[in-house]
Amino acid sequence: MTxxxxxxxGDERLGPYRxxxxxxxxxxxxxxxxxxxxxxxLLYSSLEVVSVLVxxxxxxxxxxxxxASVLVFVLDDDELETVVGFKFHRGVLGCGKRPEELSFDRLxxxxxxxxxxxxxxxxxxxxxxxxxxxxxxxxxxNALILGERCTDAYSRRCIxxxxxxxxxxxxxxxxxxxxxxxxxxxxPGVQLVGAVADAGASPLSGIVPADxxxxxxxxxxxxxxxxxxxxxxxxxCIPMASGADSLNxxxxxxxxxxx
Length: 259
Known about the structure:
There is one protein chain. This protein is of the alpha/beta class and 259 residues long. It is 26% helix and 22% strand. It has helices at residues 36-43, 59-62, 77-84, 104-108, 126-138, 156-162, 177-185, 226-229, 249-258; strands spanning 2-5, 30-34, 49-55, 71-75, 92-97, 116-120, 143-146, 171-173, 190-195, 202-203, 212-216, 234-237. α5 (126-138) packs parallel to α6 and α5 (126-138) packs parallel to α9 (249-258).
């Protein structure tokens, strides 16, 4: 590995780590992860690692994690905090290159294994999306479909909550989620199931999954738009106790995806 001990927060090579709270991450070429566990997951994923930034107090402890090919920058704590723009106690950050997103044809693949996907047309909270991604990865889903107004799957918060699920879960971002889900609806053998908080929908227990399927989740506040419910083959609801009207979208996702 190449280890460079830097003495200034102003070093231009630290650009990807600079002012992390004050900048937009959406669509950036690189993404940042924080903490030993996530940096290790990134290093041993299939994604391209640009560099690692580590505190001088932790570099010896963490040195064994770093593959020979990785570029490691070392800074003392005060200078590191100046770079990132906030108090930082985890001691290490990693910079990865955002992978190429799936095309629609690659999303469908050859049909083997069958598509098992979750679509998030307009999830706006990074913690909700991260939790959905973590669940999807744990349950063996093979695609995440994001609408054009959905939050970024590679934001620091989303990656942190998902425990690095973005490193292995293929992501497809729609230019038009309505158009793309219409296309998906027309694919033989793929069942679109819309999750709704509507007592008139089919109870979840009554839904029989097809070999290929995609669960479509609604926005945290507005739920699933009418133009999307009209596309789905099935609308499913989770029966709830009297007086309860909704679940957090990430909790509902876990229940539905497990079914």
